[in-house]
Amino acid sequence: MKCNVKFTETANADLRDIALYIAERSKDKQPAIRFVKAVREKCMILETAPESGALPKDRVLISSGYRFLVHDNYLIFYYYTKEDNTAYITAIFNAKRDYMRVMKKFI
Questions:
Q1: Using the 8-state DSSP alphabet, how is residue 56 labeled?
Q2: Cα distance between residue 81 and residue 99, in whole Å
Q3: Where are the domains of the chain?
Q4: Which fold has domain 4-106?
Q5: How far is Cα 107 from Cα 103, in angstroms, rounded to an integer?
Q6: Over the stretch 22-79, which tens digit does the pLDDT of each residue have?
């Protein structure tokens, strides 16, 4: 049975902000559109393998059920609940950022 993949409001806002940044830097919408499409496609692997993401190094994030995917220079944090067979995409941000600082608002 396919796992549901849902983007939270925060993840959608993160994706929008990144796309706006890419569009402003490149002076073209197309790279931003391609980036958003690629991130969404990357997340669709969770439909068949919801526990395939890497485990973070932080024990608190692991105990909260978080995993992450990597797309280019971005981390895509999510958690999976077996009860409702859903992977919730929680946050998307540049891998250069301190992920604990970003993710502590979710734990």
A1: P
A2: 21
A3: 4-106
A4: YaeB-like fold (3.30.2310)
A5: 7
A6: 999 999 999 999 999 999 999 999 999 999 999 998 898 999 999 999 999 999 999 9
